[in-house]
Amino acid sequence: MSDTPLKPQSKLPALGTTIFSQMSALAQEHRAINLSQGFPDFDGPAFLQQRLAWHVAQGANQYAPMTGVAALREAIADKTAELYGCRPDPETDVTVTAGATEALYAAITALVRPGDEVICFDPSYDSYAPAVALSGGVMKRMALQPPGFRVDWAQFAALLSPRTRLVILNTPHNPTATVWAQEDFSALWQAIAGQEIYVLSDEVYEHICFAKGGHASVLAHPQLRERAIAVSSFGKTFHMTGWKVGYCIAPAPLSAEVRKLHQYLTFSVNTPAQLALADMLRAEPEHYRTLPAFYRARRDLFVEALQPGRFQLLPCEGTYFLLADYSAISERNDVDFCRWLTAEVGVAAIPLSVFCEGPFPHRLIRLCFAKQPETLLAAAERLVAL
Ligand code: PMP
Ligand code: GLN
User: Fold this and answer.
1) Per-residue b/e over 173-211, b at no fewer than 16 CB within 10 Å?
2) Residues 6+ apart with CB under 8 A from 364
3) pTM exceeds 0.85
4) What does the pLDDT read at residue 1?
5) Does position 308 have pLDDT exceeding 90, yes or no?
6) What angle separates helix 291-306 from helix 373-384, to the nearest 10 degrees?
7) Degrees (nearest 5) of the Cα angle 263, 239, 63?
8) In this structure, are residues 178 and 172 in contact, taking their beta carbons and an 8 Å threshold?
9) Are 325 and 315 spatial neighbours (Cβ–Cβ below 8 Å)?
10) Residue with CA at minimum distance from ligand 2 atom 8
11) At the N or C end, where does the chain have fewer CB atoms within 10 A?
12) Which among 303, 271, 284, 269 is positioned nearest to 239, based on CA atoms?
């Protein structure tokens, strides 16, 4: 073998390692309290763990059906009917995926053709753009402004073109912790009705919503859901991001296209985990019903503990992230500030600018509050000292 390895011309030359991997590694290196990458520092429900062990012991250890275990798809369909008033057909409309990440990738790859335009809202979650690029699509990013990060629908309409193929949205929103109202979905529908434009709705935090009327899902909109792929993740709902089980819901013709991708990306998803999740959804629906209160308590504890400090906190209507403006503390840019905060203060956070393409002149960082009260209080103590 030659001692000079071949170096491929990168298909994604501008892309490095994700900010989540970078910041978690930095947090580990400096033994910082890790409020960067979004994951809980506590375990999921005991019942779920027991059911996983039980199914493994029963020998449920071979391939699951390509679309997902039937019991899980049915439980998902029932939960969707309960929450959004419309039951997808578990046979044709529900697909279990390897986390939401896979569903997003499969959906984008299934829909976007070379030259197609995809509209998304900045800041936007980092996995969308690379998938669009690999499909030859063109991202049209609409920059939203703090503190509300609301969509200006007139500006949105101006972004539409005959090449627009897909709109990607995320509510509750990572990283801004804002949520869409039903009126946003109505405005979206008004803007795209009559055109062949699909909607990819990333709703992985559907059960972590603090807004008055609860989570507004694309699945509750009678017209949009006929052209939408809604994506969710059990990692968020059941505090086990490492299980990597998610799903997507879409009308049969759309699901069929997503499944063509899914079958060659992963074929199928971890069998005993799917069976355990089906048991969990049936036996303890209170878990997801009470999740907003569970996380609201953590948010409020953290916000309260940060009050004496100089961070200015932005409203948090959903997700387990809190945005903090550090203008009163430092003039560093957000990436440098997060590195400094991790290394010198011992708290790791995520800079907001990495979720945007254009310049992001704000001094905002994202803090994850999916942590035990003692973790949050320890982090707050360090942060209020600045
Ligand atoms: N979308 C958003 C907005 C997320 O925050 C995440 C993960 N945190 C994902 C998708 C991916 O979810 P999963 O871990 O289930 O792949
Ligand atoms: N979605 C998680 C976050 O926003 C991270 C997921 C990942 O590391 N890929 O922090």
Assistant:
1) bbbbbbbbeeebbebbbebbeeeebbbbbbbbbbbbbbb
2) 146, 314, 323, 324, 325, 326, 334, 351, 352
3) yes
4) 57
5) yes
6) 30
7) 25
8) yes
9) no
10) 20
11) N
12) 284
Alpha-carbon span 176 to 149, nearest angstrom = 7
Copy the structure tokens of residue 90. 């578990």
Tokens read off for 276: 């355990």
Reduced to 3 states, what is the DSSP secondary structure of residue 281?
Answer: helix
Q: Give the pLDDT confidence score for residue 358 in this predicted structure.
A: 83
Report whether 310 contacts 352 (CB < 8 A): no
How many alpha carbons fall within 13 Å on the CB side of residue 11?
Answer: 8
Pairing label, strands 350-351, 347-348: unpaired
Pocket test for ligand 1, best of 35, 36, 101 (most atoms within 8 A of CB): 101
- Percent pLDDT > 70 in the chain is 99
Is the Cβ atom of 100 under 6 angstroms away from ligand 1?
yes
Residue 346 gets the label, from left (phi > 0), alpha (psi -120 to 50) or beta, of left
Are 186 and 201 spatial neighbours (Cβ–Cβ below 8 Å)?
no
Confidence of residue 2 (pLDDT cuts 50, 70, 90): low
pLDDT digits (tens, 9 = 90+) for 358-375: 888 999 999 999 999 999
Asked if residue 26 has pLDDT above 70, the reply is: yes
**pLDDT given at position 293:** 98
Confidence band for 3, pLDDT divided at 50, 70 and 90: confident
Dump pLDDT digits (tens) for 212-259: 989 999 999 999 999 999 999 999 999 999 999 999 999 999 999 999
Separation CA 278–CA 41 (nearest Å)? 24
Query: How far apart (Å, rounded) are the C-alpha atoms in residues 72 and 151?
Result: 35
Question: In a mutational test of the pocket of ligand 2, which residue from 23, 26, 37, 321 has the highest number of ligand atoms less than 8 Å from its CB?
Answer: 37
Q: Which residue has the tokens 């039980």?
A: 54
Q: Please report the pLDDT score of residue 359 as a whole number.
A: 86
β strands within the chain, DSSP E: 33-34, 94-97, 117-122, 138-143, 164-170, 198-202, 228-233, 246-249, 312-313, 321-325, 347-348, 350-351, 364-368
Q: Which two tokens stand for residue 270?
A: 């971890």
